[in-house]
Write a structure and sequence with these properties.
By secondary structure, the protein is of the alpha/beta class. The protein has nine helices and six strands; from the N terminus they run E-H-E-H-H-E-H-H-E-E-E-H-H-H-H. The protein has one domain: Ribokinase (UDP-N-acetylmuramoyl-L-alanine:D-glutamate ligase, 3-Layer(aba) Sandwich). Helix 1 runs parallel beside helix 3, helix 4 crosses helix 5 and helix 7 crosses helix 9.
């Protein structure tokens, strides 16, 4: 379940969606642009009274196929681009992920988060690299929406901290990875609706233990 074949995409009610930004959201310091049309994403930015402290966006190959020009314009306006490894290769034409991330930096985003499905996520910023593994799951019911959960966990954690530093983003990648693991355990949002805070804290400890080691002189 680490790759997908897109047979058809029906935009339905989202095809002519006109995003309206409520007054109470006008002073938001963190903006997450979900995986929608680049025109919708760009419209949200322009309808805010002031630029947020951090703008992150998600996208996919569908928009690269049908709206590349509009996509490039909105990419140039954001701070963080979230994209999977297949898509970043399509966007940049480069196979090696460090080179692909460097190419994305020239498009505008300071931070590039490349999602690798069951193999976790890797983040690039200012010559620095951070990798977080995904939680190994014994049972995967449906990975649909895991990427959205990752994005929500990432931006939500940064907003909770009120911090956009590299160290904060590293923590946010781990939080996003852990939360996304729960999404895979059931269909839609069912698992997240029953999720207790103690459960994701426990899984965070498990992930931390998985990657912790002491150097041994030899």
């Amino acid at each position: 379940m680490n790759s997908r074949d897109t047979l058809i995409t029906e935009l339905n009610v989202l095809e002519n969606f006109d995003p309206l930004v409520p007054e109470e959201y006008q002073d938001s310091e963190y903006l997450m642009l979900g995986n929608l049309s680049p025109l919708v994403q760009s419209t949200v930015i322009t309808r805010l009274n002031k630029r947020p402290k951090l703008i992150a966006m998600d996208t996919m190959n569908f928009w690269m196929d049908i709206a590349m020009e509009s996509l490039m314009k909105v990419i140039s306006k954001v701070d963080v681009l979230m994209i999977n490894e297949e898509e970043v290769r399509q966007l940049t034409g480069l196979k090696a992920l460090p080179l692909a991330a460097a190419a994305v930096h020239t498009m505008g985003p300071k931070t590039v988060v490349i999602k690798k499905g069951e193999h976790g996520a890797i983040m690039f910023e200012d010559g620095k690299t951070f990798f977080s593994p995904a939680m190994p799951l014994e049972k995967v019911v449906d990975p649909t929406g895991a990427g959205d959960t990752f994005a929500g966990g990432f931006i939500g954690y940064l907003a909770r901290l009120g911090d956009t530093s590299w160290e904060a983003k590293k923590q946010a990648v781990v939080v996003g990875s852990v939360l996304a693991s729960f999404t895979c355990e059931d269909f839609g949002t069912k698992r997240l609706q029953t999720l207790e805070e103690s459960e994701w804290h426990s899984r965070m400890r498990q992930l931390r233990a998985m990657v912790k080691f002491r150097s041994i002189r030899g």
